[in-house]
Amino acid sequence: MGCFPSRARRQYPGYEDPVVLASQTAFSVSEVEALFELFKSISSSVVDDGLINKEEFQLALFKNRKKENLFANRIFDLFDVKQKGVIDFGDFVRALNVFHPNAPQEDKVDFSFKLYDLDGTGFIERKEVKQMLIALLYESEMRLSDETVELILDKTFLEADVNQDGKIDKTEWANFVSRNPSLLKIMTLPYLRDITTTFPSFVFNSEVDDIAT
Amino acid sequence: AAPALMNAFELISTSQGLNLGTLFEK
Question: Which residues form a coiled coil (chain A) (predicted)?
């Protein structure tokens, strides 16, 4: 009990004390423990090594491990903050924290900017947005002519790229999403409010004395 | 709205790969 993780939990590289994680995030200790139940299930779905690899992440997302998806890859890379090719429990909780309904709006804006800045240059460039649109069309089997794609890009950059330099910087992005709040909808997961109800088994595996914290 | 009237990010945000809600579906 208390703050010393059991041998079972030490099998999880990157396992962190739920009390510490709760103090750094919008989650309560119980919610962090419920997230551990979800983490255990995802991280053992292909290789039971206590870490989530890309295949396991895609399997959890699509229920199909063969589906390659630009956006799922991008989300995985942003969760994998230490760039180890795997997500440990600490990474998982801290990244999901951004999606909590109570997380600061600024964190959501930052995360979404990084998500769309595919090559990490600090700008969302037109060629990146085009690449994402083409990936979406491929995924959804939606048919749009190249001319329509260019029209969509023209319209988007006319609205978002205020200084018209052909790329969207962080400030332009923050202003653009404040005028189009629906763009941040994907950055909030209402599920995170009910995580202890979704994974009630955390109660039986809790290692914290007072789980009501 | 018709796709041509939507901005690119509205379209992109409909990707299944960006819908993390499915992680919580058992």
Answer: none
